[in-house]
Write a structure and sequence with these properties.
single chain, 297 residues, alpha/beta, Arc Repressor Mutant, subunit A, D-Maltodextrin-Binding Protein, domain 2, five-stranded mixed beta sheet, three-stranded antiparallel beta sheet, 23% strand
Length: 297
């Protein structure tokens, strides 16, 4: 079966499918509205299907149109990635990999991974972007990023994961706080303190794990602030707005206004995992995944 469909038809169709408005799609594509309508009609005639229901100014996708939008969007993204990789090869690069990560992954995990990888692959470009867990999942599914480093217990179908770190927590206190390594006995000593915690939106599973620390300690914390960035937590603690509990990998030796107390004695642990889309065809991704597998527990 032969269809006289060209790449321009697909791009025009996707623009209308996303805007659900012919005039707005035409403006976005810098073509006339009648010209756009003509291209869509050509595509419908060639395929023998109706892509849109048109009711006066209201435009809706048909079932066939919705299916094509979902599948063509995905495959056009892969085509863009293939062409981009070809251009990198032309420019003398082996490829590019886009990372998403939660802040704690940049303390040690990602830098060590990149150092090991670039020893054998010095011509790879890396793009690094700090993102919360949910945005990373969305980015992986849309293939806006190739690999993410998340704190999640479960991931959607279509993604794969590898545990890279399981670690304890630690307390974050102002330098002049009365509790020290020598006087600290249990978290219950801090029941009257205000706590600055990672927002539940950062990761619901992570948040519940931290709440479990307080449950075991016999109190509900006074939460003064929620945030998704460790730097914000440190600034707030440093300026006397409260104290915090963070993953041990977020300990910082650079801030002399803070002190950290390890909570190795409690059972709670938090996990950091590498996550990627199973059908991502970026040739560099498989090499990075192999390295992760060989260096993880």
């Amino acid at each position: 079966m032969s269809y006289q469909i060209e790449l321009r038809h697909i791009k025009y169709f996707l623009a209308v499918a996303e805007e659900l408005h012919f005039r707005k799609a035409a403006e976005r594509l810098y073509i006339s509205q009648p010209g756009l309508s003509r291209q869509i009609k050509e595509m419908e005639d060639a395929l023998g299907i109706t892509l849109f229901h048109r009711h006066n100014r209201n435009v809706q996708l048909t079932l066939a149109g919705q299916y094509l939008k979902d599948e063509l969007s995905k495959n056009l993204k892969q085509l863009d990635n293939i062409l981009h990789h070809a251009k990198l090869l032309e420019d003398g690069k082996d490829g590019e990999l886009n990372f998403g990560y939660v802040g704690s992954a940049m303390q040690r995990i990602i830098p060590e991974l990149l150092i090991k990888f670039t020893k054998n692959h010095p011509n790879v470009l890396f793009s690094l972007k700090e993102m919360d867990n949910i945005k990373q999942i969305d980015g992986l599914l849309a293939q806006d990023i190739d690999i993410g480093f998340v704190r999640l217990e479960r991931i959607p179908r279509g993604l794969s994961s590898q545990l890279v770190l399981k670690e304890p927590f630690c307390l974050v206190l102002p330098k002049n706080h009365s509790i020290s390594h020598d006087t600290f006995k249990s978290v219950s000593q801090l029941k009257n303190e205000s706590f600055i915690l990672f927002d539940p939106e950062y990761s619901a599973a992570y948040y519940e794990k931290v709440m479990g620390i307080f449950d075991d300690s016999g109190f509900t914390p006074i939460t003064s602030h929620n945030t998704i960035h460790a730097d914000s937590i440190y600034k707030l603690v440093e300026n006397g707005f409260g104290i915090s509990i963070v993953p041990k990998s977020l300990k910082s030796s650079e801030n002399s206004n803070l002190k950290f107390i390890d909570l190795d004695m409690i059972p709670q642990r938090t996990s950091l995992s590498a996550v990627w889309k199973k059908d991502n065809n970026n040739p560099i991704l498989s090499k990075v995944i192999n390295l992760i597998h060989s260096n993880c527990p």
